[in-house]
Amino acid sequence: MPILNRAAELQDEVTEWRRHIHARPELLFAVENTAAFVAERLKEFGVDEIVTGIGRTGVVGLIKGKGEGRTIGLRADMDALPLTEITGKPWASTTAGKMHACGHDGHTAMLLGAAKYLAETRNFTGNVAVIFQPAEEGGGGGNLMVKDGMMERFGIEEVYGMHNLPGLPVGQFAIRKGPIMAATDEFTVTIKGRGGHAAQPHRTIDPIAIGAQIVSNLQMIAARTVDPLRSVVISVTKFNAGFAHNVIPNDAQIAGTIRTLDGEVRDLAESRFKQVVNGVAATHGAEAEIAFHRNYPVTVNHADETGHAIATATDIAGAANVNPEIDPMMGGEDFSYMLNARPGAFIFIGNGDTAGLHNPAYDFNDEAIAHGISYWVRLTEQRLGA
Known about the structure:
alpha/beta, eight-stranded mixed β-sheet, Alpha-Beta Plaits
């Protein structure tokens, strides 16, 4: 079936909400105004239970159906990014250095639209929890909501997420079972050498030269340690050292990220990373201090729930507009914590030919709104026996 008529009717109102949020971006957990806007709308819709402050600033609304039954969760993220917007749109960010460059404004607005529809119709048995999460962009807000007991408090048995995807046409969906987004580990290495005059390098232990060798040797982990059919990305994104043309410094610092799609490769990459760094440093008489932080885990879609998501997307868009085997992406997503806590699935919705995510020229495509609302509503009705 095509998008729902009521979803199309809500298009203009939800677009206004989206643009209101877009113009007022907030970062990480400091989403108090966005969370208040969400809670106010949920109250207006007649949502049965509204709880704020979950995961510090998250909001959950519980909508009860026409009879007792199971509870499923639908999740959207609320936070923006520390970027300066260059779109020039009338609804562009009004806060310097902050913008919705990942479409979380659109995600929040679409789920609000679905909440309004579901509260009006209640054409399901059981309950649906609409989850509005802070701090997806590096803060692990999803993890804190889980740790706050959200799943148990609302009796959530399945949980679903959705993210827009630039380059995928509006009206299309993409998903896969199993790993769909990567674990995102981070590292900082301080190489401690011995500085001196640049004209007398033999009297020094050059941390810059050692750091360069470490950067080069780290690529051998992907090239010669990990099975080429199993993905790993190691990117050094910072290299800081020195202060003068004629001085070899005492130390240097490199930092970056490791991305993997399964736990075994994740463990192997971390182990080999530490061996390479320590080994190269020791070979040249230096010391290496390693700060290694395991960030978001792999986002893994559960098989049965992925099948339900595909069926719903197919109902909305038609089989030709649903890719059920999209390649995994090496970006990270903290919906992974919710999928570790409960079975569920994470799907991509087309954002059309727009600037990429995390780009200062990006803007969420409002033409996707009715498709997203329709997906959430139909998924709820199908999973809760409409």
